[in-house]
Amino acid sequence: MNKKKIINDPIYGFVQLPSDLIFDVISHPAFQRLRHIRQLGLSDLVYPAALHSRFQHALGAQHLMGRVLGTLRQKGTDISPEEEEAARLAVLLHDMGHGPFSHALEHVLLPGIKHESLSYLFMEQLNKEFNGALSLALQIFRNSYSRKFFHQLVSSQLDVDRLDYLKRDCFFTGVQEGAIGVDRIVAMLNVYQEHLVVEEKGILNIENFLNSRRFMYWQVYLHKTAVSAERMLVNVVRRAQALVRAGHNVTASDSLRLFLANDYSLSDFTENSALLTAFGRLDDHDLWGAMKFWRTHPDPILSMLTDMLLTRNLFQIRLSREPIGRTTVDSIREAIAREYKTLRAETSYLYSYGTVTNEAYAEGQHINILMRNGELLDIADASDLPNIKAISKIVKKNYLCWPKNVSL
Fold first, then answer.
1. How far apart are CA 102 and CA 284, in angstroms?
2. Which residues in 43-82 are b (16+ Cβ under 10 Å) and which e?
3. Which has the minimum average pLDDT: 63-77, 90-104, 161-175, 383-397?
4. What is the pTM of this model?
5. 42 and 226 in contact (C-beta within 8 Å)?
């Protein structure tokens, strides 16, 4: 069987699968699951074409990894075929730990467990199934390989993950203001003392990359309507969890029911492989299918919330730089209790408040520029734009959302 397939990708054109192992990993059911997890959660309620999947993103990232490594080879960096395959696998599998709707439900279905930790467990499981063929990929993923630039290409302030998702998300949302010059950035990458650097000629491209990332966060990832929808989804799941744990009948797939009924720790996953298998069968369709049943559930809160979400009757939302005061929250709760004639204790499912943050360039995690004189500078120091230092500061916005028919 010919496993060196060519896939037509809307971002890069024809994408090649360079090895039998990569083909076999992509064909694995645990990876195929990523076809059914949307990259941008509920953002299609704002941008209707934003229906692309984690599967598409993962394929694009591994392709981009190959292009970057080809550029580095041309500039004199010695990279073996084994290292290239391992780096491609590491970025290919970096998102396997995502659950339904990607980031939206990460902290409610599996509180306290980061998706990166589950990605690593999936990679360990695959490594056993493929007789240790992913051992080097695991080293690169956990940053224990001696050549640090490989891990930086998988996870850093300037990795192929970010390059692909910014390019891909711009395409599918149609938000062209967030576009980045991937080809130029790839051409400007180099390796200096086994660490990833950007050549001085690429400073303007990195400035644009950081500005674009900041723009995409506010315009797409943290768009107020998407935040409202995702908080409603979280409340739906919270309500379903409460009902299941109180002994009520709540229709759900076996995998979804398992995580509605129980809270698990990371150690539970490491000690019980059946949990990882169950999580590997969980995707967006489990939630969408369940919500079709829940919209007619006897519980009025669960049925109302799911019907509102399925018909895009979303909470109104208010964003503010000032913290949401306790008085405001209490007023919302009282108004909701009056409107829906429900107990005050149950009103928490009908509103949400909190903070969203945008950190386009995290302090302490450098994008290093290799100057022509051999000096190594952080992009914030190499750039002549003062806003690069400014966007390294975390920007916070506070939100409060509640049903449109409830007036304050």
1. 9
2. bbbbbeebebbbbbbbbbbbbbbbbbbeebeeeebebeee
3. 383-397
4. 0.94
5. yes
